[in-house]
Write a structure and sequence with these properties.
The structure is a single chain. The chain starts with 9 loop residues before the first strand and ends in a 5-residue tail after the last helix. It has helices spanning about 35-50, 55-65, 80-105, 110-125, 135-145, 150-165, 170-190, and strands at about 10-15, 15-20. It folds into 2 domains: about 35-105, no CATH class; about 110-190, no CATH class. The mean pLDDT is about 75. It contains 7 helices and 2 strands, in the order ββααααααα. By secondary structure, it is mostly helical. The chain is about 60% helix and about 5% strand. α5 (about 135-145) runs antiparallel to α6 (about 150-165) and α6 runs antiparallel to α7.
């Protein structure tokens, strides 16, 4: 017999006769939703691990995390070593996160998009207003106003060809792309600022 099929009732002696009272509802109750069960579990864990977090719980956490750092000759140093390691870990965390974010940011572009971003930043450094929504054609027009015509046109055409065609870049196109990027950088160095 399953628990869901279990049934209970009460009998009470009234007068000289036993009378049965059945507190079980006649229709089965609805099963709570998954969300309701999840919220109930969160409340239970909150009560157990936050509200009722006792001093013995705190001591157990310190004991577990300090096991590898216990020094048998100097037991009074144990909490200090644990605190030092915790402090060093917490202070190193922002540096580690910054390095990871920088690595992820630099690795998210493929070769031709990375080259395009370099040229875009070069144009921007010349005082040209370049926003996130600036299209390659708009960037080319702004660079032409700076006196860059041939290389920037060829560069943007090559970029759009590879960016939007899905065609794999050949070794020759890669070398051409690098050459154009160097030439644009060289010309941008000679060109006065433009606003």
């Amino acid at each position: 017999m399953r628990e869901s099929n279990a049934h209970s009732w009460v009998e009470a002696a009234i007068g000289n006769k036993w009378i049965r009272f059945d507190p079980t509802p006649s229709v089965p109750g609805e099963r709570p939703s998954t969300l309701a069960l999840f919220v109930d579990a969160l409340k239970m864990n909150w009560d157990r691990y936050v509200v009722a977090f006792s001093i013995s719980d705190q001591k157990e956490i310190v004991r577990v995390f300090s096991l590898p750092f216990r020094l048998p000759q100097m037991p009074e140093v144990r909490p200090n070593v644990f605190s030092l390691i915790t402090l060093l870990s917490l202070s190193a965390m922002p540096v580690i996160i910054a390095i990871l974010l920088r690595h992820l940011k630099s690795g998210r572009y493929n070769f031709f998009t990375a080259q395009y971003m370099k040229v875009r930043n070069l144009v921007k450094r010349k005082g040209v207003r370049v926003t996130v929504s600036t299209t390659p054609t708009e960037l080319m027009e702004k660079a032409i106003r700076l006196g860059m015509d041939g290389e920037i046109r060829e560069f943007i055409e090559l970029y759009e060809e590879h960016r939007f065609s899905g065609r794999k870049m050949s070794k020759e196109d890669r070398l051409k792309y690098k050459r154009l990027t160097r030439e644009i950088r060289r010309q941008m160095g000679r060109t006065p600022g433009f606003i």
